[in-house]
Specification:
- The complex is a heterodimer of chains A (111) and B (116).
- By secondary structure, chain A is an all-beta fold.
- Helix content of chain A is 0%, strand content 57%.
- Chain A has strands spanning 3-7, 10-14, 19-26, 32-38, 44-50, 56-58, 64-68, 73-78, 87-94, 99-101, 105-110.
- In chain A, the strands form 2 sheets. In chain A, strands 2, 4, 5, 9, 10 and 11 form a 6-stranded mixed sheet that branches. A 5-stranded antiparallel sheet of chain A has the order 1-3-8-7-6, with no helix packed on it.
- In chain A, a hairpin with a 4-residue loop joins β7 (64-68) and β8 (73-78).
- Chain A is globular.
- The termini of chain A are far apart.
- Chain B is mainly β and 116 residues long.
- Helix content of chain B is 0%, strand content 57%.
- Chain B is built from no helices and 13 strands.
- Chain B has strands at residues 5-7, 10-13, 19-24, 31-38, 42-50, 53-56, 65-71, 74-79, 88-95, 97-98, 101-102, 106-107, 111-115.
- In chain B, strands 2, 4, 5, 6, 9, 12 and 13 form a 7-stranded mixed sheet that branches. In chain B, strands 1-3-8-7 form a 4-stranded antiparallel sheet, with no helix packed on it. Chain B has a two-stranded antiparallel sheet with strand order 10-11.
- In chain B, a hairpin with a 3-residue loop joins β4 and β5.
- Classes of the chains: A mainly beta (111), B mainly beta (116).
- Chain A binds chain B through residues 32, 34, 36, 42-46, 49, 51, 90, 92, 94, 96-104, and chain B through 4, 33, 35, 42-43, 45, 48, 50, 55-56, 91, 93, 95, 97, 100-110.
Amino acid sequence: AQSVTQLGSHVSVSEGALVLLRCNYSSSVPPYLFWYVQYPNQGLQLLLKYTTGATLVKGINGFEAEFKKSETSFHLTKPSAHMSDAAEYFCAVSDRLDMRFGAGTRLTVKP
Amino acid sequence: DAGVIQSPRHEVTEMGQEVTLRCKPISGHDYLFWYRQTMMRGLELLIYFNNNVPIDDSGMPEDRFSAKMPNASFSTLKIQPSEPRDSAVYFCASSLTGAGQNTEAFFGQGTRLTVV
């Protein structure tokens, strides 16, 4: 079985500050890992994904995440937060069959 | 492609009534997922299909919930009878396997269900 734990249901940063959203996973097989973003009243949109190869992956809107097998982590970062980044972020793990999501982290960006 | 299409976008129904949610996956995708999102429980996987066949329905909360996929372009999630605690946003998602790999899931806009 696979699962995802997102540390911190709410994260608040100032505009221009570093964004760090934490995700740890468990999987019995080499995982595929994803970060999705959800804006109010919208579906989930893929930010980035890791399947194989380079462990540092870059996504849309300046986000990136690093797969660290030894730490079973896939934390999402962005060097400088923008007001438009305010949304809910979901980490997900796939064993190539189904996809399981974390509980989500709501990001607030203060002016 | 128009993406994953769900209907209706909003549904308000009375307790005890039957509710049917509909989903049209992206053409060519062979996996279809139904998720439920609530404040209390987050995003839960209810059931998923591969090539129209249900693979894992262990997330379906009760026998009141049923899902079908009669063909590659259509799926339904039915709740009968509905209860207030079923109120949630229900998402459908689809994905494509290639070379044995499952790519990311593409989500519909969701159906917001309110049972009063």
